[in-house]
Please model this.
Amino acid sequence: MKKIRGVWLTNVDSTVLDSKERIVEAMQFLADTGFNVVFPVVWNKGYTLYRSQIMQDIFGAKFAIDPKYQQQGREPLLEVIAAAKQAQMKVIPWFEYGFAYSHQSLNNPQKLIFETKLKQLGWLAYDQDGKPLAKNGFQWLNALLPEVQDFMLNLILELVKNYDIDGIQGDDRLPALPSEGGYDSATQQLFRQQFNKQPPLNHKDKLWLQWRADMLTNFLEQLYTKVKATKQELTFSMAPHPFNFGWREYLQDWKTWLNRGLIDTLHPQLYRRDFNSYKNLCQETISQLKSNQISQLAPGILIQVGSFRINPIILWDMIQYHRQHGINGEVFFFYEGLRANNNELAKFLQQKKYQNS
Model:
């Protein structure tokens, strides 16, 4: 896709996926506003939003799909695909939680079943104190383990093979692992074999950071190769952290991903609330790319979170800044920000003829 005007669809702080009728109305609304691609969430809180035989086989029938949709007898992804195609928009499912399996704020009997099974499988990540790895509330699988990588690979390939989608998307948690992780016995042993010494206790030691980041890059190469071998035409999309933070905190080396030709489109989450902060981060991001890679860039812009909602004029300044610097698209986080205050932001974008920008 040359020009991406996208929006993320969530099932948190949003009702857009709550019924087929809402989805149909939303897709037409987005198309009328000038968007051409949606990124619906398909993996979070330990559940898929599509029927997954892989989840069912490993964790049991209750995990075949998010129980909310199980009870409704619905499959939100299928409804999004049908409605988006009708509105002539592309659908790129988004694996929001990636290698994070849950959040500490979530507490239900099924989470306990899920976590117990993960422990039995030996899939949890650990920090240097031997505690299960959690960062900013998210609880993590060990993304460096081949078995965990295979699980994620199979989950994504299941979606690619069975659904009429236009691409797949990883993000700030796929591929990623908090840099506090990697202190499990298998990973430590691998490091000792290669370097004849223990992994550093400083989890931000440069060699230790790069070695683990390279393991995630190699996983991404495997994923990219298998997705493209299954459906060559799919867009392989990534929405990682801004580079310096992402590499240091989450082992995301997306400059290498781009240089090795492992992604088609890059949507770094440049989530800043005022124009100057955004411009500085955007400029820094551009400076980290080769000139021939800028056409792959369509940054993520924050339009709403919690009580924050972006001022339409500031949003337009960000979009204009993109066009002035050869950036032909962006993705908005998230859908409800367009509907707030009687569709204020969407009306503004229509008035500005966003579809022609």
Notes: The mean pLDDT is 97. The longest helix spans residues 206-230.
